[in-house]
């Protein structure tokens, strides 16, 4: 059964600075505890990743995924192409500039391929949301400071 959740965070950076950090998928293991590795398989004309292979571990469950990214000036999203643990996954970052800050909304829907107890799935989703928002904010501020 598919499960969806979302979370918002405000980051003291421009949408471009935030998208640059999201696009640096190889550094995701530095700021997201769920990411064990990332390999860009294809890039678009702007150098942003379009197809990525990920190694993830959540709640003791390991997964290898291939995802397809889509980029706009104020969003980054991905769809699951292959996974050993999920039937589907759709996720997106939507960025709204607000002066010198940016409101970041992260949304994700996952559908596990095997039954997972609801409380385990909820805890895994919560960890993913925290990494995708708080982890992203910390990494963006770290990159800004140099």
UniProtKB/TrEMBL annotation:
Q: Output the InterPro entries linked to this UniProt entry.
A: Polyketide_cyclase/dehydratase, START-like_dom_sf
Q: Name one Pfam family in it.
A: Polyketide_cyc2
Enumerate the Gene3D superfamilies for this protein.
Answer: 3.30.530.20
* SUPFAM superfamilies cross-referenced by the UniProt entry: Bet v1-like
Q: Which PANTHER family match?
A: COENZYME Q-BINDING PROTEIN COQ10 START DOMAIN-CONTAINING PROTEIN, CONSERVED PROTEIN TB16.3
> What protein does this entry describe?
SRPBCC family protein
